[in-house]
Amino acid sequence: MTVKISHTPEVQKLFDDACGLSADQGSPRVKALMKRIVNDAAKIIEDLEVTQDEFWFAVDYLNRLGKSYEAGLLVAGLGLEHFLDLLEDAKEARAGLGGGTPRTIEGPLYVAGAPICQGEARMDDGSENGTVMFLKGRVFGADGKPLAGATVDLWHANTKGNYSFFDKSQSEYHLRRRIVTDAEGRYSARTIVPSGYACSVDGPTQEALNLLGRHGHRPAHVHFFLSAPGHSHLTTQINLSHDPYLWDDYAYATRDGLVGEIRFVEDAAAAAARGVEGRFAEVDFDFRLQAAPTPEAEQRSRRPRALQEA
Ligand code: MBD
Ligand code: FE
């Protein structure tokens, strides 16, 4: 057996030093994490016989990934963002908590500060010739009773699968709203049926997916942040039942309990009653929140996002 160079005392001393373990300053937490990362990277390089060309390709890939702001897309595609949900689920189960609407990944396209509406909202600006979608439901608390005054912060893509803010051709906060539930815990929105998202075909995420023999599609979906005093913040999505990618999501966000059954209605009288013309869609979806075990649980993660709120 050949000796593993990465395990020798010389190399361990090198990495300890490089990770600041002999320095007084800096963050102990970051030092511990960095030592593990560098150590594991070295082991991968040695065990898998990573070539010089492969190593420098990876360094250049990271530069390109960051330059195109696609790191959030890649971690979703590699299943790591979903893995964080599995960890949270397991932590809750161990603590005897859980129940309520399942969580699922946020993805990289939330923008803080969407307009606040009471009970109901119109989310699209009328500029797209999409299928009108009426989305409604109720938010229930941990005790199973409707929650008045809960905030339903929702966002979704347009008919091309693009999100406002990131797609500068859309108006400000297009397809993004915060709806405060009414006295019966109800929210309702008039919007347009979103299209599924696809990673940019010439971006670094799709480049990696191609090398893995994978597509970069997500089914049509609507994202939600739900919050209410005394309840745990919930990050989730509803993935729409009609989409062929429903259970073939590149980001692994579709979960049992999070499929939104979409009904397409072709009935002139029903359309007239809704104040629309032609075919439209309906989705009903209720949420159930959990009691917050701690005050921090009421808040969403401090993940850096576009337009942080003051
Ligand atoms: C999306 O719209 C999304 O929701 C995720 C998770 C990843 C990429 C694009
Ligand atoms: Fe999305």
From TrEMBL:
Record's protein name: catechol 1,2-dioxygenase
Positions of region (Disordered): 291-310
GO molecular function, a single term: catechol 1,2-dioxygenase activity
Organism in which the protein naturally occurs: Azotobacter bryophylli
Listed pathway(s): Aromatic compound metabolism; beta-ketoadipate pathway; 5-oxo-4,5-dihydro-2-furylacetate from catechol: step 1/3
Domain called Intradiol ring-cleavage dioxygenases: residue spans: 135-163
Annotated family: Belongs to the intradiol ring-cleavage dioxygenase family.
Catalytic activity from the UniProt record: catechol + O2 = cis,cis-muconate + 2 H(+)
Origin: domain of life: Bacteria
InterPro entries according to UniProt: Catechol_dOase_N, Cchol_dOase_prob, Intradiol_dOase_C, Intradiol_dOase_core, Intradiol_RC_Dioxygenase
A Pfam family reported for this protein in Swiss-Prot or TrEMBL: Dioxygenase_N
Gene: catA
Co-factor(s): Fe(3+)
